[in-house]
Amino acid sequence: MSHTKTEKPVYRTELSPLSFLQRSAAVFPDKIAVVHGDRRYSYKNFETRVIRLASQLRKYGLEKHDRVAFLCPNIPALLEAHFAVPMAGGILVAINTRLNSDEIGYILEHSGSRFLFVDKELFPLVDKLKKEDLHTVVVDDSGEPGDPFEIFISEGSDESIEIWLEDEEEPIALNYTSGTTGRPKGVIYTHRGAYLNALGEIIETGLTNNSKYLWTLPMFHCNGWCFTWAVTAIAGTHICLRKTESSLIWELIRKEGVTHFNGAPTLMVMLVNDPSAALVQNPVTVTIAGAPPSPTLINRIKSLNFNPVHVYGLTETYGPTTICEWHEEWNMLDAELQSKLRARQGQAYIISDLVRVVNANMEDVPKNGAVIGEVVIRGNNVMKEYFGLPEATATAFRGGWFHSGDLAVWHQDGYIELRDRLKDIIISGGENISTIEVEQAIVKHPAILECAVIAIPDEKWGERPKAFVTLKRGAYATEQEIIDFCRTQIAHFKCPAKVEFSELPKTSTGKIQKYVLRAREWGDKEKKIN
Amino acid sequence: MSHTKTEKPVYRTELSPLSFLQRSAAVFPDKIAVVHGDRRYSYKNFETRVIRLASQLRKYGLEKHDRVAFLCPNIPALLEAHFAVPMAGGILVAINTRLNSDEIGYILEHSGSRFLFVDKELFPLVDKLKKEDLHTVVVDDSGEPGDPFEIFISEGSDESIEIWLEDEEEPIALNYTSGTTGRPKGVIYTHRGAYLNALGEIIETGLTNNSKYLWTLPMFHCNGWCFTWAVTAIAGTHICLRKTESSLIWELIRKEGVTHFNGAPTLMVMLVNDPSAALVQNPVTVTIAGAPPSPTLINRIKSLNFNPVHVYGLTETYGPTTICEWHEEWNMLDAELQSKLRARQGQAYIISDLVRVVNANMEDVPKNGAVIGEVVIRGNNVMKEYFGLPEATATAFRGGWFHSGDLAVWHQDGYIELRDRLKDIIISGGENISTIEVEQAIVKHPAILECAVIAIPDEKWGERPKAFVTLKRGAYATEQEIIDFCRTQIAHFKCPAKVEFSELPKTSTGKIQKYVLRAREWGDKEKKIN
Question: Do residues A514 and A430 share a domain?
């Protein structure tokens, strides 16, 4: 790989995560970069595999900024793609493996992907999709010579390839997120943003070259919050994980000496309640986002010698963008107050601009912990655009700030604390669910007249969708029937946990008043998110 | 301070260390940012003082990119200048306090500085200089209301000021270095470079917000290797230090719980040999540059519970640019071999491009640890230019790489190891000395016909200058006379430690053969630097 770019001034190298792998492979060639079961790849191996994959993408006709889709769990192939695809000059589309076939088909088509790498177990999801223009490679994830993915890369060249990157603001990845509309939107990340966010993660979570990072967080979520690039930059060890089973995670924590892992509170609850849960010898940094961790969870996490770090962000912000930075003096406070402080989303990462909480006129709300406004964000940690959706981008960027759709109070000390959402989405186990998408799926059922979906609090998942439906005159359907029907339409995790049959509260103009339903389900809770 | 810059895309904020102070003051307002004797400034205080100083510079007529000189030891005023000067839109010129009056006068004039802030004790150095066009403020360093510097900032405004920065590649600092010519050259740093190098220092030396950084390294050296900005970014604590006295340093290490400090081996030798030297309770990271640390020194450092980090760089590279990254498996080797490995300069920082060792045709020398070539560097850690010297810049940047002038071998594992210098400079206690400048000073003595100055090894200072002189026919001078004469011309640390009277070895065309003199003094040492 050549980074010479002689046309650039001597004092300027375009910021790109590609330099991280190049450097770690040069400085720590024999260090273990990737662990996957019994497989071990050194940084030199890792780089060689990446170069081969990149060269093959070129050989099969990849042109600059072509999209390359991966539908894989957290396995070496997907990690390698985080470097090989941009090295070849393409844009990585890491698809959520929890989606159904239609949803995946939509993303493949909308992104215009020219390549698809699909894990053997997930192949049924794409089997029936139109794939004529899609060069498809199955990943057996065996690492053995017969694995189609291994055959593909084995034919690649070991010679470093010319890098096409001319400007650090070129796209590196395209990540689809469930927004407020029924269809997911594609979020464009740049090389510059990915580079800076990776450095931010290293600093904020204290990664070092002795770190062993366990891949509990899906790599398809914001490219693993940029940890794909961050752990590589610091020359730590990636520990891959096909399935987030808590007993296996506990086994790996002990066997591999894990120092860091990330996830939503749902994952953490599952882990701390596993029969294998026990004090770890060396402290493990556990970075939590997706929903505020509860005091009970925090206490349990700490009792296991885990060090909890609470962060907040969105797909549009490369993952985490704020952190609840801990103040030493807070250690003197009682446990409940400590947990209350830690449940706040905090303030910007070192590499981010300070976030604001604003009213509808883009004016700061008072820092009094009471007035609610919208969290707005700007800076190098904000996406470049929604792919192919200039209007949606302009709306999200109105007033010169990215509108998160999250409602928060602003505390006197400058920390923000989320309270509710403007966006009609549900966050369940760290996954976004568009209520509109669920509603559209439900009303396809022949018995249903109309429907409204809201989030309800759930102990395990944080939130789950609940549907309120009105049946057509004379029609009949059971709760289970509707749920089952829904599962034929959209990903299982998006389907309602409960269905209630009732009249829907409406305004005089006929608009459904979801807030009435929410009030009924959430009662007088201070926060309307969980 | 406003970073809004609404004309920029939402996803782009110009990289600038200014954001570091803004963020730390917002997130950790009450945390101690600066310690100086009994004085303590919180991050909020620090920011307020910086804003006042910046607003005063504007009030006194600072225009964009005006140079603002500081001649101060490591005191709060100079640290504040690292943010206030760029906040106002100026370029900071932190002058080496070990220079003499003429040299300082040259820098003030060459830089075109419009402001001079000078420490009370250093005022005699500038007393006789022409200062009509130079707004001069004395810094008593008392922090008390009567201190002229305190009066100056007390008149400043507390209101945040509009930031003029439009492009992250605008200059932030101008640092003069003794190069190969008689006169120092001014090295231009950019906001982007300063920002990235600061993040690099945080990551490579493991700074956290619990870090307490002791200012043993002069802030006038590469802006303290960018630690002025790095420690602020991470919201650590700066511990200022007027004088590098080893007993005081030991006192502060214990009293303030220092976690990090930096310096040349000379400082480290002084410290470990101080009567107060004793095991520290918590490990202290000691970052060493300026010359390779000896095995004896490394062992002594480690025995005190200091963790040595060996780095290498130049003024032209914002301070350190390579690091001898330690490999865990090296801990198994015998102590001597470990020290040998650690004495190598290593490879690039995470934020830097990999460095190369090249021959005269810019081809890589073999990685065999034997063939010597020049170390060349490029990337975001390279200066923008030599101020006002386009030809010198072009020469330094020939072939699209910055030429360090340092000669090294390239080991099989990619690490570099310095062996000699192309540039005719001496590095004594971390300070560069131009041999040409010393020669020019000596030949002004009426008795001297000609002279050649080379470095000789010195146990305390690493290297010291030695002059070989030929007297005019019939003239007479003693060694001490020549040294004393020299001290009237140039800074004391630049004057020869020894003078030898002899014929100078020359080529047939009359060029002095310094290598003959070096061979005589250095014998068969593998390295011709120390």
Answer: yes
Q: What single-letter DSSP state applies at residue A419? A: E
One domain for residues B45 and B191: yes
Closest residue in chain A to residue B402, using alpha carbons only: A10
Closest-approach residue (CA) in chain B for A13:
B379
- Asked if B394 reaches chain A (Cβ–Cβ under 8 Å), the answer is no
User: How far is residue A23's CA from residue A195's CA, in Å, rounded to a whole number?
Assistant: 13
Which residues of chain A are within 8 Å of residue B378 when distances are taken between CB atoms?
10-11, 13
Whether A443 and A500 map to the same domain: the answer is yes
CA distance B382 to B197: 10
Does one domain contain both B411 and B435?
no
| A372: closest CA of chain B, how far (Å) | 20
A13, A19, A26 ranked by CB distance to B414: nearest: A26
Q: Which of A10, A15, A160 to mutate to test the interface with B (most CBs of B within 10 A)?
A: A10
Could B401 and A10 be called an inter-chain contact, meaning their C-beta atoms sit closer than 8 Å?
yes
Which pair of structure tokens corresponds to residue A256? 């591999």
The pLDDT value recorded for residue A213 is 98
Contact B407, B417 (CB under 8 A): no
Identify which has the larger pLDDT, A160 or B84.
B84
pLDDT surpassing 50 at residue B322? yes
Percent of chain B with pLDDT over 70: 98
Does residue A413 fall inside a structural domain?
A: yes
* Mean pLDDT over each residue of chain A, to the nearest integer: 93
Q: Which residue has the tokens 């002189």?
A: B469
Cα torsion B363, B369, B375, B377 to 10°: value is 80
CB of B367 less than 8 A from some CB of A: no
pLDDT classification of A182: cutoffs 50, 70, 90 = low
For the record, the structure tokens of A288 come out as: 């939590």
Q: Which of residues 190-229 of B touch A (CB under 8 A)?
A: 190, 193, 199, 202-203, 206, 208-210
Read off the CATH number of the domain in which B469 is found. 3.30.300.30
Residue A411 domain-assigned (yes or no): yes
**A interface test, pick of B189, B350, B351, B381 with most A CB neighbours within 10 Å:** B350
Show which of B214, B243, B272 is a domain's final residue: B243
Q: Would an 8 Å CB–CB cutoff place A487 in contact with chain B?
A: no
State how many domains chain A has.
2
Note whether B29 contacts A413, CB cutoff 8 Å: yes
Tokens of B46: 């620090």
> Is B452 touching A (CB cutoff 8 A)?
no
Q: Which residues 399-428 of B have a C-beta within 8 angstroms of A?
A: 400-402, 413-414
Q: Hey, which residues does A118 pair with through a beta bridge?
A: A71, A138
SS (H, E, C) B131-144: CCCCEEEEECCCCC
The Cβ of residue A180 has, within 10 Å, a number of other Cβ atoms equal to 17
Decide if B452 contacts B426 (C-beta within 8 A): no
d(CA B63, CA B330): 53
| A484 contact partners, CB below 8 Å, separation of at least 6 | none
User: Which residues fall within 8 angstroms of residue A298, CB to CB, at 6 or more apart?
Assistant: A308, A338, A339, A342, A343
User: A378 touching B, CB under 8 A?
Assistant: yes
When pLDDT is cut at 50, 70 and 90, the band that residue B529 belongs to is confident
Whether A348 and chain B come into contact, CB under 8 Å, resolves to yes
The answer as to whether A224 is a domain residue is no
For the stretch B332-371, pLDDT in tens is: 998 888 988 998 999 999 999 999 999 999 999 999 999 9
Q: Which residue carries 């200022």 as its tokens?
A: B240
Domain residues for B122?
18-243
- Whether residue B429 sits in one domain with residue B377: no
Contact B4 A400 (CB under 8 A): yes
CATH number, domain with residue B87: 3.40.50.12780
Structural domain contains residue A89: no
